[in-house]
Amino acid sequence: MGILISLLANIFIKKKKPLPIETIFKLASEPEPPNFPQGNGFATGTIDLGGLQVCQVTSFNKIWATHEGGPDNLGSTFYEPSAIPDNYHVLGHYSQCNNKPLFGWVLVAKSSANDPSSLAMPIDYSLIWSSESQKIKRDKTGCIWLPVPPNGYKPVGYVVTNSPEKPSLEKIRCVRSDFTEIVEFDRWIWGLTNEIDPNGLNVYGSRPKDRGAQATGVSIGSFLVQNGLADLSLPYCLKNNTNTLLAMPTFAQIEALIQAYSPIIYFHPDEKYLPSTVNWYFENGALLYQKGLENNPSPIEPDGSNLPQGGSDDDSYWLDLPIDDSAKDRVKKGGLDNANAYFHIKPMFGATFTDIAIWVFYPFNGPARVKLEFVTISLGKIGQHVGDWEHLTLRVSNFDGSLKYVYFSEHSGGTLLDASQIEFGNGNKPVAYASLNGHAFYSKPGLVLQGKGGNGIRNDTAKGKAVMDTGVRAAVVAAEYLTMVEEPPWLNYSRKWGPKVSYDIVKEIEKVKKVLPGKLKEVFEKAVSGVPNEVLGEEGPSGPKMKNNWNGDEKY
């Protein structure tokens, strides 16, 4: 009888499955500051913003949680930072969606001895939102408060409580206005439903509005609230008022970061067009063409020293494969035995983070393939082009040298993921999958479609035998803040890395349609409509230094 009761209990009583956020994510072996070569202010734990000292806190106490809405309809949890160093103060609380392990950070701050007025307590709070009247699954009553600053100061984060009572004015500090900049919404964290409702409550991450290598805005790691069409005041971000980059890594520290975090790239088992070094491409017959002298192309020096430097992408020059067919076919295939990864290092978020962009060059980008219902067809010349530059970006905290985010470039855009959301290999090396023919990077193997209704341009990824550890033959080609890094001549070539082939894409699409049965013709038209020109066109790309993200932020 006891056994029967136990079996029935297992059938009728469902054990609650733990949420991903109930697990704290940690890297396999986080590098501690002593493991980095010593030098400057990188990975020392604190950064001076010019009279305001800040440090990064990654431990939290839970305040309040919802159990529905947001990504995967799993809700969100709100936290306050804990284990705050002596004399430092909270600037804002933290929020994260429940569908991934807890892996967050916020900045806390203290005034420098020579500038004691950089922080001030709020004079009151404004209630931004309360869960009291909301019919949602939640813990107690959650309230989000915006500090009301004294004159000359601005709030840079919210306070969250699990009761309707106003929090203590001691809970948080406002920041003097000259240490602040404007913020904007980042990735979606939570809303009352599982989709973004522009007329309802939404919680987002925050990021400085002005971002890039020269920008001074500093993210504090907190969140922003949008409550429908209500005109809400938003907090600000911090500003780095120093003119120095002391928190940026030295060259020796960059080398240590590359060895710790250099990504591993897996190529599809059917991939024919692999990466190569730029030098190998030039040495094996790549040619430089000039407008008006098309019949007299020039061979290229191995380091690209005879390429035109500077200028703009005005179609006056371009590169192409060797003329000889056998050489052309051989060079198209590239080869991992002669492939380098090219690294560009730049400051981000007011030099409180380091972006390490890893660029990979392919001599050739293969044709696009389209999925139509249960059929996959090649689009022939559509989508193929000479020269292909793809990249991944590691975003590393300058406070402790830990990897926080990885950006995967995908054709005309990309995806930024927390370190907790990606696969790792060989310790702390992020794993990326290059799509078949098009070489877009994804964090997981499988199929990603660019289209609607289960039809569209295919991006197939899988773990083939061809694999590239980008740290094995790493070449740091640019780090503008370090005078010791000499840029190769080819990096400053501003024109196309492949020819612009003129053909009527509409006619090419019509050729494909002719061989399709009647029902699939309409499906095909819908599948290719709205696909970026970068995917469908046959035009070589510009080089890494000509991309917007070279000096700016990634597009996601």
TrEMBL record:
<dbReference type="Pfam" id="PF06101">
    <property type="entry name" value="Vps62"/>
</dbReference>
<dbReference type="InterPro" id="IPR009291">
    <property type="entry name" value="Vps62"/>
</dbReference>
<protein>
    <recommendedName>
        <fullName>Vacuolar protein sorting-associated protein 62</fullName>
    </recommendedName>
</protein>
<feature type="region of interest" description="Disordered">
    <location>
        <begin position="533"/>
        <end position="556"/>
    </location>
</feature>
